[in-house]
Amino acid sequence: MKAEIISFTDHGARLAGKLAEELPKENISCRAWVKKKDAVLPEQVRVFSLPLREWTKERFSRADALIFIGAAGIAVRSIAPFVQSKKTDPAVLVIDEQGKHVVSLLSGHIGGANALTRLAAKILCAEPVITTATDLQGKFAVDAFAARRGLYLDSMEYAKEIAAELVAGRRVGMRSAWPVLGAVPEELDTEGRPAVGFVIDVRKEQPFAHTLHLVPRITVLGIGCRKGTDADHLRDVVFQTLDEHRVCKESVGRIVSIDLKKEERALLALAKRLSVPFETRTAEELRQAESESGFAESDFVRSVAGIGNVCERAALAGAGTKRLLIPRTAREGVTVAAAVMDYTVWMED
For residues 231 and 266, what is the distance between their CA atoms, to the nearest angstrom? Predict the structure, then answer.
């Protein structure tokens, strides 16, 4: 996590300096600033002379957390033009100038503001102020659970509905395609069929009338293609294949191919589009991959690549497993397969 701190007084600068000294010990990189030219500065704090709006604008889309040490109204007016979505907005905290209260202002769950509020309050010996209903009642918070584990949420509306059900004292459903370790909160129903619930899976399963999908990025795409394949065509084939098998594209964690394709622009473009790494393996490395169901071999592919199947072997090699999620699918010069890495759901923090 990357945090940026802004303060406005001498005492605020001292608080900022203390946070800038202590937060890195919790793996939070931190920069601290003060909007006061004649402030007595701790060594961790620098002067920021531009308008506060510019400071906020520059950091709102880049930092994971913004911490304002001053009046809440200053923070609210500063961030207001830039607030967009609880999925993407950074955590925003407000600390009063005397360091008595630390307030979680924005992105409490997904952005991690609530957790950062508790940490900052501990460092400053202050009172954490958290207004999220599920936190106040000690209920399970599905968005916070997903954020801590890097899971994609496909519907904020259903996440809100789940939170409302839990706050009202009703149980919500939970399903997982993988083993679950740790104690499952009693408000989660893992056997019945409540109307609202969530599923942890890479597939678009619908066990509940209103199903929220929590998607881990553990799908590995193995792809082969002709040299010079059009990037849009390759993307369309891949996305169509995922849709046909009801696999969420947000589950893709990496793309793997043979080393002959390490400079293939279409593959590089797809990896960039999905924000995932693109990896290659040698023919010999792919030959070591094992499949429970065998491989669909091609003499033509063997003549070009040295092995009879690239996509299935690449997917399994990248995932480190033997079972395919999507078998070889071929369309107009593009072959796609998918496998899933081993995964376990941990309920406890």
Answer: 4
Q: State how far the Cα of 32 lies from the Cα of 2, in Å rounded to an integer.
A: 11
Q: How many residues does the chain have?
A: 349
E-strand spans in the chain?
Answer: 2-7, 29-34, 45-47, 65-69, 91-95, 101-106, 127-129, 152-153, 172-176, 180-181, 188-189, 196-200, 210-215, 219-225, 252-258, 278-281, 324-331, 334-340, 345-346
Whether the CA torsion 294, 295, 299, 303 is positive or negative: it is: negative
* Helix, strand or coil, per DSSP, at residue 139: coil
Residue 224 forms beta bridges with which residues? 335
**What local confidence, expressed as pLDDT, does residue 258 receive?**
94
Distances (CA, A) of 167 to 164, 171, 186, 270: 5, 10, 13, 41
Burial 184-220 (b: 16+ CB within 10 A, else e): beebbbeeeebebbbbbbbbbeeebebbbbbbbbbbb
Residues forming a β-bridge with 220: 254, 339
pLDDT greater than 60 at residue 349: no
Rounded average pLDDT over 252-269: 96
Determine the Cα–Cα distance for residues 233 and 336; give it in Å rounded to an integer. Answer: 13
Cβ proximity of 225 and 334 under 8 Å: yes
Q: Measuring CA to CA, how many Å separate 78 from each of 2, 73, 90, 109?
A: 19, 8, 13, 21
C-beta of residue 259 within 8 angstroms of C-beta of residue 280: yes
Q: Mapping DSSP to helix (H, G, I), strand (E, B) and coil, where does residue 32 land?
A: strand
Which residue is it, tokens 């293609």? 225
| pTM score, whole prediction | 0.72
Residues whose CB falls within 8 Å of the CB of residue 191, separated by 6 or more in sequence, listed in order: none
Q: What are phi and psi of 283, to 5 degrees?
A: -60, -40
Are 242 and 248 in contact by the 8 Å Cβ rule? The answer is yes
Tell me the C-alpha distance between 85 and 203, whole Å.
Answer: 25
CA distances for 161 relative to 60, 114, 172, 194, angstroms? 28, 20, 10, 13
